[in-house]
């Protein structure tokens, strides 16, 4: 029986996906659950598992083509592996968009699912087109037209890119040929990369971001770890790292300074009464920030387990879009690569991000004496529109105090 | 008659009467004083526009164009016409009737709006008082909380060719010729000169237009101007550029006109001379001492962007203040002031005022000319669509001209639209609206236009700006 292999239901905020690779060719036999193809969206790579065992009869979509939910990708003939026979080549379907589509940054909207169609009634025709093509949220575009209408120029400025024809032409410029070995290699950004680029730029252009620093003496935390790491691992089946301490300290500080846990929506400050903390994970494909939910309710073991699971999933490219969205605060650790100090970029629409760095033994003064202590510089980048300097500094001081004296976490002081 | 008003408007032309009506609509007590008297002595509202400008000229342009059509252009339709006769007296009679209907209409509008319409002279005194002198000489002093000055403009007179009311005339005189002049000279190839020159050319005059500037229609987009010049030449309008008229004098059988051009001094003898080199603001006997209202060196009443003069609660609108001397500019200023006096929002957008020349082919434009865009340094693109490629225009036998659209390269904003061709004055309205909404050429491209219409030309011109026209070859 012939079965149509369709594009799985894409999450709400994702309009389409690009078929990146076919793992199986027409005529090959496949087993149930075997991954047939990779679909790349702005946030993750999705797999297309074979629903049944059989033979892949026909591939309908060429790699590099943009597809939407429910679109037919291939036809699978159910049954035991058939003889090779005539392997039907891929049906000659013209890609819906030229290969250049893979290069075109088509960023999904920020957080809240933004359907361009709902707000298209008052948009000018050109704006409607641009909003849909680039999956923009009209509410985010500063409008300069009559009665607050968005003009095409407003969208162009918002996207900060030259007129389309120019961009199109430059993308096709041939590689410069210089002396032997001096060639340029032009590689279009992957969708994921382009999306990351766009979001980072958007964060910097929307928020009034700056960073405040402090340093933490991690001796106390290290002592706790040294004393209990074995029993912890024995009891909970997971290693006791540092992240759980930092995350818990962050929650304590967020409780005391709720505005750091809030987001800006239009002219409103939205205070979130829950603590979903994103933990940045670096992968080959790029930076991802999966979110730990309700961290205030999780135990240290839960946190370590979840972080470990996310890291594993990220390496395998299996993080889902749901796991990446939401989040009221983020933590990033540049120290794993050796960074001493940095100014992380806030993960919009959140309003702040904590940056951890490498721990280095340094001479510091403790009670009038010089001692060697494991010091870590920490950074808090924050949106100054809603978080004032005083709060940001004290927030960071709270984290420092909680980590330098973990009893504080226990007692909530 | 009351002597205290919320608003007194001095001037009942296209700036004054809308100001009065809007103020009255805003429930204010309004009086409108107007001193226009026709040549037959009748006192009427409507000012220059209705009596000696817009309306009568359009009437004559229509009649004269029909004459040309009937005489020369019906054959192609299979309509055989012979022995076409023209009666200039009847043409003038129709014009007079239209003017009368219009002025009566304005009087009715003022009455219906509850405005006290006073005919006579109004003079602003200090302290927001107005001295009203009726046509019979009776004087009265009125007072108002606000006064709106809308005294208009008059044709600029040049001493060396002073009006004699018979053979050397201004535009009003030119509208009233009782017979078709055999040879007619026009000083000034501006809007008025071209329109009046066209009228009399069509009905049989030999017309020479003397323009001092080297550039024809310098105020318009030069692509448009060149096309226009081509057609006017074909129609037999002899337009001489760089011709500076030194003087003219009435002779026994007409007018002797002296001018200098590239080849030296010239003299021509004509039957009538129309002098239309511009208009100047009219404030004669308008302002007494101590009103606080200032007038600039060119005679315009000084006002800010909202038509407020330098005196408190004294406003000025229309031809007597800065800006293009156009009836629709006057009207919208009047309405703006009528609203602002009542404490409401009022605004004028001087960047989207359309201009129309009612010649054939008709000419209209809004926004910047190509020369202005070039001078601004902003990179631009142009889309042009000829009416020759329009099915509707072909069916109408009106294929002359084109629509030219100028848009910015950086964000596609429409910067200017220039039309020469059938019903240009009507078609420009869409462009004005588009520019009011800061539309891009793409917005026009994505708006459906009925087919087959002349309006499609604007659609195709917008597409042509991106080299995506459907009904024309993209170059």
Structure summarized in a few sentences:
The complex is a heterodimer of chains A (413) and B (475). Chain A has 413 residues and is an alpha+beta fold. Chain A is 29% helix and 24% strand.
Please, could you describe this protein's structure?
The complex is a heterodimer of chains A (413) and B (475). Mean pLDDT of chain A is 81; it is low at 82-120 and 162-178. Chain A is globular and about 80 Å long. Helices cover 29% and strands 24% of the residues of chain A. In chain A, strands 9, 12, 15, 16, 17, 18 and 19 form a seven-stranded mixed beta sheet that branches. In chain A, strands 1-8-6-3 form a four-stranded antiparallel beta sheet, with no helix packed on it. With 413 residues, chain A is an alpha+beta fold. Chain A has helices at 100-103, 125-133, 152-159, 164-171, 191-206, 219-236, 243-256, 300-316, 321-324, 389-404, 407-411, and strands at 2-6, 17-22, 29-30, 35-40, 45-49, 54-59, 66-67, 72-78, 209-217, 263-265, 268-270, 277-279, 281-283, 286-288, 291-292, 329-333, 352-356, 359-366, 369-383. In chain A, helix 7 crosses helix 8 (300-316) and helix 7 crosses helix 10 (389-404). Chain A folds into three domains: 2-99, RNA polymerase II/Efflux pump adaptor protein, barrel-sandwich hybrid domain (OB fold (Dihydrolipoamide Acetyltransferase, E2P), Beta Barrel); 104-169 and 189-206, no CATH class; 210-411, Chloramphenicol Acetyltransferase, CATH 3.30.559. Chain A has eleven helices and 19 strands. Chain B is an alpha/beta fold and 475 residues long. Chain B has three domains: 4-154 and 280-350, FAD/NAD(P)-binding domain; 159-277, FAD/NAD(P)-binding domain, CATH 3.50.50.60; 361-465, FAD/NAD-linked reductase, C-terminal dimerisation domain (Enolase-like, domain 1, 2-Layer Sandwich). Chain B is 31% helix and 26% strand. Chain B is built from 13 helices and 21 strands. Chain B has helices at residues 16-25, 47-52, 54-73, 88-113, 171-175, 191-202, 222-234, 327-341, 370-376, 391-395, 424-436, 441-445, 456-465, and strands at residues 4-10, 30-34, 116-125, 129-134, 139-149, 153-155, 168-169, 183-187, 206-211, 238-241, 244-251, 254-261, 264-270, 272-275, 279-281, 314-316, 355-357, 362-367, 380-386, 402-408, 414-421. In chain B, the strands form five sheets. A five-stranded mixed beta barrel of chain B has the order 1-2-3-4-5. A five-stranded parallel beta sheet of chain B has the order 7-14-8-9-10. In chain B, strand 1 (4-10), helix 1 and strand 2 form a beta-alpha-beta unit. In chain B, helix 1 runs parallel beside helix 8 (327-341) and helix 3 runs antiparallel to helix 4 (88-113). The longest helix of chain B has 26 residues, at 88-113. The N and C termini of chain B lie far apart (68 Å). The mean pLDDT of chain B is 96. Classes of the chains: A alpha+beta (413), B alpha/beta (475). Chain A binds chain B through residues 124-126, 129, 144-146, 149, 151-153, 156-157, 162-163, and chain B through 408-413, 436-440, 442-443, 445-447.
């Amino acid at each position: 029986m012939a079965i149509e292999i369709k594009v799985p239901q894409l999450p709400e905020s994702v309009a389409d996906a690009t078929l990146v690779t076919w793992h199986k060719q027409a005529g090959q036999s496949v087993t149930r659950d075997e991954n047939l193809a990779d679909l790349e969206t702005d946030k993750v790579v999705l797999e297309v598992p074979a629903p049944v065992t059989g033979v892949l009869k026909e591939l309908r979509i060429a790699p590099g083509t943009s597809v939407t939910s429910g679109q037919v990708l291939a036809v699978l003939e159910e049954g035991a592996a058939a003889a090779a026979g005539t392997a039907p080549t891929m049906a000659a379907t013209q890609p819906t968009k030229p290969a250049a589509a893979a290069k075109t940054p088509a960023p999904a909207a920020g957080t809240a699912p933004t359907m361009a169609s709902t707000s298209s009634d008052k948009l000018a025709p050109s704006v409607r087109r641009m909003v849909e093509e680039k999956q923009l949220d009209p509410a985010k575009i500063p409008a300069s037209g009559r009665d607050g209408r968005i003009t095409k120029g407003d969208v162009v400025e918002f996207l900060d890119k030259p007129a389309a024809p120019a961009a199109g032409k430059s993308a096709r410029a041939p590689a410069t040929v210089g002396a032997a070995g001096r060639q340029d290699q032009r590689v279009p950004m992957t969708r994921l990369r382009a999306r990351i680029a766009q979001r980072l730029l958007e964060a910097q252009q929307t928020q009034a971001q700056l960073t405040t620093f402090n340093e933490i003496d991690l001796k106390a935390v290290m002592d706790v770890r040294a004393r209990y790491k074995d029993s912890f691992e024995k009891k909970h089946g997971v290693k006791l790292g540092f992240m759980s301490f930092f995350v818990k300290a962050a929650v304590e500080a967020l409780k005391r300074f709720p505005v750091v846990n809030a987001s800006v929506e239009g002219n409103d400050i939205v205070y979130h009464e829950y603590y979903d903390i994103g933990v940045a994970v670096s992968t080959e494909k790029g930076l991802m920030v999966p979110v730990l939910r309700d961290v205030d309710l999780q135990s240290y073991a839960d946190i370590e387990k979840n972080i470990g699971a996310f890291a594993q999933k990220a390496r395998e490219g299996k993080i889902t879009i749901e796991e990446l969205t939401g989040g009221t605060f983020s933590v990033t650790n540049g120290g794993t690569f050796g960074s001493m100090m940095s100014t992380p970029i806030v993960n919009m629409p959140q309003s702040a991000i904590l940056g951890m760095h490498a721990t280095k033994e340094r001479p510091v003064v403790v009670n009038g004496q010089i001692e060697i202590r494991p010091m870590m510089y920490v950074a808090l980048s924050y949106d100054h529109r809603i978080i004032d300097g005083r709060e940001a500094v004290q927030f960071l001081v709270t984290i420092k105090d909680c980590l330098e004296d973990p009893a504080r976490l226990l007692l909530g002081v | 008659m009351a002597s205290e008003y919320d608003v007194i408007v001095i001037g009942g032309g296209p700036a004054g009467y809308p100001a009065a009506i809007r103020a009255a609509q805003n429930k204010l007590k309004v009086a409108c004083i107007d001193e226009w008297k026709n040549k037959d002595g009748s006192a009427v509202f409507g000012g220059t526009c209705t009596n000696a400008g817009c309306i009568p000229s359009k009437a004559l342009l229509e009649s004269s164009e029909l004459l040309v059509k009937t005489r020369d252009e019906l054959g192609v339709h299979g309509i055989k016409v012979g022995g076409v006769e023209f009666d200039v007296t009847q043409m003038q009679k129709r014009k007079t009737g239209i003017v009368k209907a219009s002025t009566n209409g304005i009087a009715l509008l003022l009455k219906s709006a509850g405005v006290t319409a006073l005919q006579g002279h109004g003079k602003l005194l200090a302290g927001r008082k107005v001295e009203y002198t009726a046509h019979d000489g009776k004087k009265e002093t009125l007072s108002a909380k606000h006064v709106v000055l809308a005294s208009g403009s008059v044709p600029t007179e040049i001493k060396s060719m002073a009006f004699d009311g018979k053979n050397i005339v201004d535009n009003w005189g030119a509208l009233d010729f009782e017979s078709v002049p055999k040879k007619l000279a026009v000083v000034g190839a501006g809007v008025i000169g071209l329109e009046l020159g066209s009228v009399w050319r069509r009905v049989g005059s030999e017309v020479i237009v003397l323009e001092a500037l080297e550039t024809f229609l310098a105020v318009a987009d030069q692509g448009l101007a060149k096309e226009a010049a081509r057609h006017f030449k074909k129609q037999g309008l002899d337009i001489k550029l760089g011709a500076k008229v030194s003087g003219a004098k009435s002779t026994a059988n007409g007018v002797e006109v002296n001018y200098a051009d590239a080849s030296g001094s010239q003299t021509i003898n004509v039957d009538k001379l129309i002098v239309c080199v511009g208009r100047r603001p009219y404030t004669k006997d308008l302002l007494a001492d101590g009103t606080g209202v200032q007038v600039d060196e060119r005679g315009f009443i000084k006002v800010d962007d909202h038509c407020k003069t330098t005196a408190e609660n004294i406003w000025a609108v229309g031809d007597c203040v800065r800006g293009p001397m156009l009836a629709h500019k006057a009207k919208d200023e009047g309405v703006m002031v009528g609203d602002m006096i009542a404490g409401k929002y009022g605004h004028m957008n001087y960047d989207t005022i359309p201009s129309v020349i009612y010649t054939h082919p008709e000419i209209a434009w809004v926004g910047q000319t190509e020369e202005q865009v070039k001078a601004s340094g902003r990179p631009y693109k142009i889309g042009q669509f000829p009416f020759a490629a329009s099915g509707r225009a072909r069916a109408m036998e009106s294929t002359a001209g084109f629509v030219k659209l100028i848009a910015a390269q950086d964000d596609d904003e429409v910067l200017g639209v220039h039309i020469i061709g059938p019903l240009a004055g009507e078609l420009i309205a869409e462009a004005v609206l588009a520019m009011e909404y800061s539309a891009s050429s793409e917005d026009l491209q994505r708006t459906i236009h009925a087919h087959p219409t002349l309006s499609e030309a604007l659609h195709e011109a917008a597409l042509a700006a991106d080299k995506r026209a459907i009904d024309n070859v993209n170059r």
